[in-house]
Amino acid sequence: MFLAYYTICVIYCFYQLFTKYQERYNEGMVGLSPGLDSIMVLMIAWVLAPIDIFLTLIKKLKNKSV
Fold it and tell me: Model-level pTM?
């Protein structure tokens, strides 16, 4: 069960990581590699994914109420 949770978290974090890199560094920078960020994701993905999901949820609920 923990392995399935960890796998889902890693997939989610890598998806977020690479979409953000494409948004930020789409200005023609050659050779940009998110290597250190990828290592960090592998180590603490089980914490990052739930935090990111809850913060996104809170932000969306806050925008609805305003």
Answer: 0.68
